[in-house]
Design a protein that fits this description.
Layout lengths: L2 H14 L3 E3 L8 E4 L4 H10 L7 E9 L40 E9 L4 E8 L7 E3 L8 H12 L2 E3 L28 E6 L4 E6 L20 H4 L6
Parallel strand pairs: 2-5, 6-7
Antiparallel strand pairs: 1-2, 3-4, 4-5, 8-9
Length: 234
């Protein structure tokens, strides 16, 4: 870790203590988790503190951790139906009575300090609330407006206090939230133009789901480790 990142990490630890917890990070970045009840206070301090000065929210995105770390295609059993939702024919609509695991949905905030030239990734889980909800940070960074609308549209995450929380990328008649892990690949409805009615109409999905993984699992000497890793000509 560079001296600049070490100084930022020390500053965050001194300023917030255990209110910020280390989060998985890549590319030597600094990533921390914050509890949703402290999100607004922490974000305000990150922006206003003279030693931090995160004046800019570069990006905000939702995350669905459903099935995180599960690789069901790593199997020795062949299939003619495929795996998971790719081959399921069902209409998936969010259930208002469903109980979510506390760490299924999260929102990640990518922050930049223009004056001090350092970056921070802040993650906040929505908890077990249904629908998932976090306070809006639009009063702290105005750039969060459309970012939060996108997270609402694609993940169904609500942002309390947002001035105009509407769908952004899908249309008004869209059902569900397409970036959720349990949303069917084929979608819930399809749209077409009906020349007889002279307008666009919605109808059930007419395409057939298909297997997206090989049906044959080969197990022969080409995949034997002792042969596969042998140098050429050996």
């Amino acid at each position: 870790m560079s001296e600049r990142r070490e100084a930022l990490a020390a500053n965050l630890s001194a300023r917030f203590g255990d209110r910020l917890q280390p989060a998985p990070a890549a590319a030597k970045e600094i990533a921390v988790d914050v509890h949703r009840d402290e999100l607004l206070e922490v974000c305000t301090t990150l922006r206003d503190d003279e030693g931090l000065r995160f004046e800019m929210l570069v990006d905000l995105c939702g995350v669905d951790y459903l099935g995180f770390g599960v690789a069901e295609w790593q199997t020795e059993d062949a299939t003619d139906q495929g795996f998971s939702r790719a081959a399921q024919r069902a209409t998936i609509i969010p259930d208002p009575d469903e109980s979510y695991p506390p760490q299924r949905f999260a929102v990640t905030y990518h922050l930049l300090s223009l004056s001090l030239n350092h970056r921070l990734r802040l993650r906040c889980f929505t908890g077990d609330a249904n629908p998932p909800m976090l306070p809006s940070v639009t009063t702290i960074w105005q750039s969060a407006d459309w970012y939060e609308r996108e997270a609402f549209d694609l993940f169904g995450i609500l942002f309390a206090g947002h001035p105009d929380l509407r769908r952004l990328l899908t249309d008004y008649g869209f059902i569900g939230h397409p970036f959720r892990k349990d949303f069917p690949v084929s979608g819930n409805l399809e749209v077409r133009y009906d020349p007889e009615q002279g307008r666009v109409v919605y109808q059930p999905v007419s395409i057939e789901p298909r297997t997206l993984v090989p049906r044959v699992i080969r197990d022969d000497n080409r995949y034997t480790a002792s042969l596969k890793d042998r140098p050429p000509g050996a």
